[in-house]
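Retry 2 of 3 after timeout on previous attempt. Resubmitting structure tokens to design endpoint.
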């Protein structure tokens, strides 16, 4: 971990190509919405998502969708402290296999160093900046995209979750030196101070936790040094391979769009605005990029529909009416005309080509 003198306003905040977050961070939000019987599917659709998008814990989803969903969840549950309370109940196990590394860390400084190591693998276009002073160290958290605002729930969730994890590793009575938030906290000070058990400030330049160095460097109970370092080295190697291997693998925008369409076709909201949002682009930018690659969103959507229609018709797994609905057509006639344009045959004529299952 690299420590610096406290100059957070001068720290490097280079924006990354896109702002994404791993799907497993949506899980506690969904769990809390379920507990309140909130309209989860409606809230996800507003973000261009469905529950199917959350199946893989390491899928990269738009950070904007996560932040906006957190704000919407606070409204849907009538709880202005949704993020704070979600963070206060956060447990080590929610971090998945990274928990194994944390449990073998020798100190809080080492634990927060693990957070710094995996921050960009968890959440792109965000920063965890470490500023070491004589008696304290400041850990500041911020999102690199200024258009992602408001983000009060995300900020309070992140900071309270870190404090909760520290208390699990040390003592429930542990207190920070200072908590700072980017957003205004007027009318919220009492509730925030009650949880953090210390001073809280708002309207800052970052979200941050100031911790005594003696707390950071005090040994934590755990395995022997040799065993601990062996577990950390092995787990870090596997986790970094898992969590960063797909960060820049897409060869083209059209391939990324094809993947998004294929995943959503028949199960989620599907139009250029939804796909653009998932790829952290404006619809206009996406159209322009696809044009440069010699295609368009409509052509790609039709191509995916054609491939899926042909496959399902030949497999004889569903009726034409069901297939039309599955592919997003308003009725059979519209689908049939489109299919005939693609193949020169009606869906029923094409299906007759399939070998009998008998």
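Retry 2 succeeded. Sequence:
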């Amino acid at each position: 971990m690299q420590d610096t003198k406290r100059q957070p306003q001068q720290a490097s905040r280079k924006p990354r190509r896109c702002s994404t977050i791993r799907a497993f961070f949506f899980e506690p939000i969904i769990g809390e919405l379920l507990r309140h019987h909130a309209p989860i599917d409606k809230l996800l659709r507003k973000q261009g998502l469905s529950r199917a998008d959350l199946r893989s814990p390491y899928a990269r989803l738009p950070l904007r969708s996560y932040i906006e969903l957190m704000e919407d969840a606070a409204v849907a549950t009538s709880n202005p402290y949704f993020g704070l309370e979600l963070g206060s109940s956060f447990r080590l196990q929610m971090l998945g296999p990274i928990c194994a590394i944390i449990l073998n860390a020798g100190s809080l400084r080492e634990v927060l160093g693990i957070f710094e190591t995996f921050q960009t693998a968890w959440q792109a276009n965000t920063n965890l900046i470490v500023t070491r002073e004589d008696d304290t160290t400041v850990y500041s958290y911020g999102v690199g995209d200024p258009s992602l605002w408001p983000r009060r729930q995300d900020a309070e969730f992140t900071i309270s979750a870190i404090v909760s994890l520290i208390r699990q590793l040390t003592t429930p009575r542990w207190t920070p030196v200072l908590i700072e938030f980017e957003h205004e906290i007027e009318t919220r000070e009492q509730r925030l101070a009650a949880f953090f058990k210390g001073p809280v400030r708002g309207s800052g330049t970052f979200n941050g936790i100031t911790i005594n160095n003696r707390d950071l460097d005090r040994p934590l109970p755990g395995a022997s040094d040799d065993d601990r370092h062996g577990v950390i080295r092995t787990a870090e190697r596997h986790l970094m391979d898992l969590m960063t291997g797909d960060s820049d693998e897409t060869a083209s925008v059209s391939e990324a769009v094809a993947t998004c369409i294929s995943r959503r076709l028949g199960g989620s909201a599907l139009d250029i605005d939804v796909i653009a949002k998932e790829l952290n682009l404006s619809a206009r930018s996406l159209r322009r990029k696809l044009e440069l690659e010699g295609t368009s969103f409509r052509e790609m959507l039709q191509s995916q529909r054609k491939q899926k229609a042909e496959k399902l018709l030949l497999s004889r797994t569903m009726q034409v009416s069901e297939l039309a609905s599955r592919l997003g057509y308003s009725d059979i006639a519209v689908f049939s005309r489109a299919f005939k344009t693609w193949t020169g045959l009606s869906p029923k004529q094409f299906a007759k080509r399939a070998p009998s299952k008998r």
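Attempt log closed. The chain has two domains: 8-244, 253-351.
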